[in-house]
Amino acid sequence: MSPEEAREYNNILVDALNEDETAFSNDFYDFAWVPATSHNMVLGPYFYDRWDRPKLMRGWPTSGLEKWNKWLDRLSSLCNTQWREEGIYDAIMLCKSSFTCDRNLVAVGLCFWSPSTNTMKLRFGMMTPILLDLAAMAGFRPCGGEVSALSPSKCEVDFGFTKNKSYKVFMEVNAQETWPLTHKEQTTFLMIWLCKYVFCMASTQVTLEVQPLAEALAKGHRLALGPMVWAYLYRGL
Fold first, then answer.
1. What is the residue extent of each domain of the chain?
2. CA geometry: angle at 237 spanning 165 and 36, to 5°?
3. Which entry of 2, 19, 67, 132 is 20 to 30 Å from 38 by CA?
4. Can you give the pTM of this predicted structure?
5. What is the spatial distance between Cα 83 and Cα 87, in angstroms, rounded to a whole number?
6. What is the pLDDT of residue 53?
């Protein structure tokens, strides 16, 4: 979407607000510093002055390096059946695709988002993504083993670090090309996949908090990833 098209959307939204301003809640604008008025919308001074800064969406997933794609092909040939049974195969294969971040379109969509109800407030009512949407689009299971912070989280693999590692460094240290697949290697792959492509960590680094989940998936446990991904999606919005 071009800046001209974004301005056109902005004008449409302003006209809609002028017609029925009481139908819109101020919580649309909680994430912006500008006053919440119909003529001072997010797509006004906030958007055109600050939205193009790279750090605002640094966690947006991008297509992997050539080494990552080769690694993905190798592991997918070895773990095809297991990943399909766990319901993560389709989501993992999406990593090979590149999705361009259309910031203008994202900004327009956020004008209708209400963080107080986690819904899009539209003229025909409220709308929000549900667990069945995640299951249909990415294959994340809505039911299965519970993923909870209260679950036992003893890890078997010792990566030997206490601070977060960049995706590239973590991959180069633990990825293999020809050796038989090990539990540690698959856990490494799943940790990068979870941090970069599923939870889109703002730090753009591998965090140890996902290791218990990655190890459980590496062992073939059928977990209910849908509710957890759903929660991260809402937290991000």
1. 3-56+103-122, 61-99+130-236
2. 130
3. 2
4. 0.72
5. 6
6. 56
Cα–Cα distances in angstroms (integers) from residue 161 to residues 158, 164, 170, 208, in the given order: 8, 8, 10, 9
> Average pLDDT per run of 10 along the chain, which is 237 residues long?
55 51 42 40 45 58 74 91 92 82 78 84 86 89 81 76 79 83 92 90 85 91 90 81
Residue 129 exposed, middle or buried by CB count within 10 Å (0-12, 13-18, 19+) = middle
Residue 235 burial by Cβ neighbours in a 10 Å radius (0-12, 13-18, 19+): exposed
Q: What is the mean pLDDT of the chain?
A: 76
First to last CA, the chain: 21
